[in-house]
Amino acid sequence: MVIYPPGFRTPNGDSVPVDNITILDTTGLYCPEPVMLLHNRIVDVAVGDCLRVIATDPSTQRDIPRFCQFLGHELVSEQVNESTFEYLIRRVEQG
């Protein structure tokens, strides 16, 4: 079990355990590009593994949780930093 990244915490403060993480850096891109790239990249992530999305577009705070809810992926964690928004998404097998 790997604890990664150290800055990500669950709502109760626990570290987020994950096995494999792919990073998608969408900094500097604006709606709809971050979600379009997320949609294209998540299919390359193995079921159960995670995709870490780094964004600078504030609309991702609305769009990425909705994307996860709509497609059934698990939004493990989201974090607002000084200049970025970071999301940890676990891919769930589609029925």
Strand order of the largest sheet: 3-4-6-5
Supply the helix-strand structural class: alpha+beta
- The CATH class turns out to be Alpha Beta
Strand content: 25-35%
CATH topology, by name, is: Translation Initiation Factor IF3
The whole-angstrom Rg is 12 Å
- What gap, in angstroms, lies between the N and C termini? 27 Å
Q: For the report, how would you describe the main beta sheet?
A: 4 strands, mixed
Explain the overall architecture:
Helix content is 23%, strand content 29%. It contains 2 helices and 6 strands; from the N terminus they run βββαβαββ. It has helices at residues 33-42, 60-71; strands at residues 2-3, 17-18, 21-25, 50-55, 74-80, 85-90. The protein is globular and about 35 Å long. 25% of the residues are buried.
Which key phrases capture this entry?
alpha+beta; Translation Initiation Factor IF3; 4-stranded mixed sheet; two-stranded antiparallel ribbon; 2 helices; 6 strands
What's a quick, concise take on this entry?
By secondary structure, this protein is an alpha+beta fold. It is 23% helix and 29% strand. The radius of gyration is 12 Å and the shape is globular.
